[in-house]
Amino acid sequence: MTQPCPSGADIAEAEAFLAAHPEIEAIDIVLHDSAGIGRGKIIRRHELLPLYRSGRHIPISILGLDVCGEDVHETGLIWDQGDGDLRAWPVPGTLKPLHNTQPARAEVFLSLYELDGRPMTSDPRHALARQIAAFAERGLKPAGAFELEFFLLDNERGPDGKVRPARDVLDGRASSKTEVYSLDHLHGMLPLFSDIYAGAEKAGIVAETLISEYAPGQYELTLHYREDVMQAADDIVRLKRIVRQQARAHGVTACFMAKPIEDYAGSGMHFHVSLMDSDGRNVLAEAPGEGWTETLLHALGGLKTTMAESMLIFAPHLNSWRRFANQSYAPVSTAWGVNNRSVALRIPEGEVRARRIEHRPSGVDANPYLVGATVLAGMLHGIDNRIDPGPETTGNAYEEDSDDPAIPRDWLSAIRLAEGSDFLKKALGPDMHCTFTAIRAAEYARVARTIADVDYQLYLHTI
Known about the structure:
Blueprint: H1 11-20, E1 26-32, E2 38-44, H2 48-54, E3 56-59, E4 85-90, E5 96-97, E6 105-113, H3 124-136, E7 140-153, H4 183-187, H5 190-202, E8 207-212, E9 218-223, H6 229-249, E10 253-255, E11 271-277, H7 294-314, E12 336-338, E13 345-347, E14 357-359, H8 368-385, H9 411-419, H10 422-428, H11 430-448, H12 453-459
Parallel strand pairs: 1-6, 12-13
Antiparallel strand pairs: 1-2, 3-4, 4-6, 5-6, 7-9, 7-10, 7-11, 8-9, 11-14, 13-14
């Protein structure tokens, strides 16, 4: 018996896809956990239509895993509930062919639901959907895009045991220079980037500008602005998967750690967001000759006042915190400013009708669904409570003294703040909040009991 699909997916989408792609033999079915890691199964072609008819049973514990794929019992999602099955359903519009696969495969995103069709509230996708719905109740629709920064690294580490930039896939040329904005450096990776663009096109993603970023082996791809921030989050997680797959096919490693090379800048995931009313007007955009809108200022105020307790969302892992350093293009305060890359909340120059907030704290290792949910909740908190963001920072935010709320300076402090945060409980929902913080605390415990190489370097022969 066919069960009503709570995600809104229509079997006609799958039927049309199979008719248009007779070459497809298998499909990756992908559910994203609290860390944004894609987990799921590979099904055969004949299993696709049953997935759309009846969903697919998946154990609830899939959302209670740490970054190593091991159970975190403190989430309450494992033995407390008997590790029972819930039902995953396909997300409408996410069934896409994959580029450069042999035999030909596709992928589709899943979202998890209770057996009675209610959203499973530890699914990050549902957390973002709740915040989008909160804005819809006020007649507003968030629009936006994420930027993707990443490293291309050699598959083998250097003689010192550290990672090193990948050689050009075109001719094997090596460089350890920063190479920021170097076109020649990009040319050496063009065969790989051509496959990335081809994969993005097949997936319906408009990948745009490519640059060589501010570290050896670091690159940035920008994405076309979406009218729906859920689609923007889908774009970034799918593009990460495409980059990783195509890099592997070309014999190099795509790295989405926030800070893989200690002496250089890390990789961010800046989130650009604006708000549209029912007439398609950007309510953050000021009238000609007038100052900033109250909506823009109050949204900034909300983001500033909630940033400290939200930092674990933006910097979820130990390595995330290595990215935050003075003059590293990663913000270390809650400052806001115009056309200023030293601040956390930047108002980019450009057309007034495209006015937006560029939220800069998140690393590329953050989960974009949870980043989106938390940023939107912060904006809404500021708008509803008419919070003043304080004065604009016009100089170097790394050096200026400020009375702004302090943000945590280390991972453990961020975990403790997040665990007790009423704002995050509301932004993510209590179940998603519990799942996320429990998994991060378990990850901290794993790291804390691990003996790092630096311990031996400092203490082995000296203490």
